[in-house]
Amino acid sequence: MAQRQGIDTKCGVFRNDGAIIWAAMPALGAYVPDSAFLAGAASTACGGIRGKRVLDVGCGIGVTTLAISKTCPREIIAVDNSPEITELMRTVMLDNESIDEYLKQRNGLEILGSGASGLFQTTASYLEFQRDDFQNGIFRACGGGLHILTKSAVEITESDCGVVDVVVGSHYLHWPVRQFLTEFSKDVTSGAVAMKLACERTLAPLAAILKPGGVMALLTTDDFVMFDDDLDFDSTLGMLSWTKHPMALKAHSAIAEILEEYGIEHLSPSKINIFKHSNVFGLLEVSGLKLESVLFTSTAVRCDPRWFVAAYPMRLGGYNLSPNQRTSAIMRARQKYFTSLQAADYSRIRTSLITFILRKL
Ligand SMILES: C[S@@+](CC[C@H](N)C(=O)[O-])C[C@H]1O[C@@H](n2cnc3c(N)ncnc32)[C@H](O)[C@@H]1O
After folding, report:
1. Alpha carbon of 169 to ligand 1 centroid (Å)
2. CATH code, domain carrying 41
3. What is the 3-state secondary structure (H, E, C) of the chain?
4. So what's the pLDDT on residue 2?
5. Does the global pTM surpass 0.85?
6. Residue 4 has what pLDDT?
7. Is residue 283 in some structural domain?
8. Distance 337 CA to ligand 1 centre (A)
9. How many domains does the chain divide into?
């Protein structure tokens, strides 16, 4: 088989149609509790966010920005390197044009699917809720300002956003770290050295715009963190992982069978473990940042079978398939998956979250 497990190191999944597809995830309940937890953790770590300036890195469509806005900062700067995703966020948070029309003009009905098993209606109504919650919430009522930038956060400088009191990033950290890791692994023989460099390149620009005493709160999942210093805990996390959910296994078999026709061996989703809990201090303490705490929490969302098909485009991100081949593979797999489901497959979907709280000295 020619291709194995697509690793989308270039973040292609958030480009083009990916912006709209991504919006289906919070619409199904994913990422929303994570951002609420992160906003609470960041707020506690810095003694309250009210009146402060916050940078939201890898903001996506604004789920974390919305959660942070409820802590009433003076200003939020949201940055993402996908122009399609920042355009969608601007439309939702700062405009008033019809969200239904916006999505339809970008083939939203076809991409998300209509009807009961489709995601169009759910996504459009979630985005309406996000708009209303933001535009009519405490942040705007207090005159808070939101600036949305399209830029890579690893290239951000003070001239883009000034100095900030707080940096938050939800499900962002592993993207640049994995990209740099792929790049540096070509030149550096030691994996540990490549990882150290990758973390430095990711965090240094953010540390440079953070005020002394300021807080950086970065949330990721146990998909990327191994508790190598507590293996019993690590294996319990492994058992509860979404990768073992009966629907995840069925969704995987459905797409894997179809991808075989294209000469692709699609490996089962598994934990990637780029961070080892025992040495995160050594990795993240760069450019005057001190790692103050590593927080753990777990969330559960209602089981919706559409969750796993919404994630198909992300799983296929790294494969060399034409857009038509990708769409046709996804459509066929969706059908196969839905017909394979049984009542016993319905159980809550859990995620374990790890949040790094860093302080600029
Ligand atoms: C998994 S999404 C999380 C979005 C949002 N924080 C949330 O929790 O809903 C990751 C986001 O990080 C963005 N991203 C990845 N690498 C980036 C980089 N170097 N600079 C800015 N954004 C980046 C992607 O475009 C994507 O929107």
Report:
1. 8
2. 3.40.50.150
3. CCEECCCCCCCHHHCCCHHHHHHHHHHCCCCHHHHHHHHHHHHHHCCCCCCCEEEEECCCCCHHHHHHHCCCCCEEEEEECCHHHHHHHHHHHHCCCCHHHHHHHCCHHHHHCCCCCCCHHHHHHHHHHHHHHHHCCHHHHCCCEEEEEECCHHHCCHHHHCCEEEEEEECCCHHHHHHHHHHHHCCCCCHHHHHHHHHHHHHHHHHHCEEEEEEEEEEEECCCEECCCCHHHHHHHHHHCHHHCHHHHHHHHHHHHHHHCCCEECCCCCCCCCEEHHHHHHHHCCCCEEEEEEEEEEEEECCCCHHHHHCHHHHCCCCCCCHHHHHHHHHHHHHHHHHHCCHHHCCCEEEEEEEEEEEEC
4. 53
5. yes
6. 52
7. yes
8. 28
9. 1
